[in-house]
């Protein structure tokens, strides 16, 4: 199929430069990379990567004051009462994925 549609996007110049340098090192023209990205969106029926908020580091419980520790315990207890829990196996699998262990 002939390529005749255009995509116009305004992006950060530094981001564009960095991405183009990597693509050049890979020997992939920018237009081909965008085409590959769009094909993956169609194949996956969504973005071809996970989109989520940045990971927050776990609390260092030893560094908390007694008051802060009690607040965290209360939050955990409220989560339990509200049913915001998950099976241990799921929690461990998520931690392994998040921490790459």
Automatic annotation (TrEMBL):
Q: What are the protein's UniProt keywords?
A: Toxin-antitoxin system
Which InterPro entries does the protein's record reference?
Arc_rbn_hlx_hlx, RelB/DinJ
Q: Which Pfam families match?
A: RelB
Query: Looking at the keywords, is Oxidoreductase present?
Result: no
Q: Which residues cross the membrane?
A: none
Q: Name one GO biological process term.
A: DNA-templated transcription
PANTHER family reported in the protein's UniProt record = ANTITOXIN DINJ-RELATED
- What family is this protein classified in? Belongs to the RelB/DinJ antitoxin family.
Question: What's the protein called, per UniProt?
Answer: Type II toxin-antitoxin system RelB/DinJ family antitoxin
Q: From which lineage does this chain's organism come? A: Bacteria, Bacillati, Bacillota, Clostridia, Peptostreptococcales
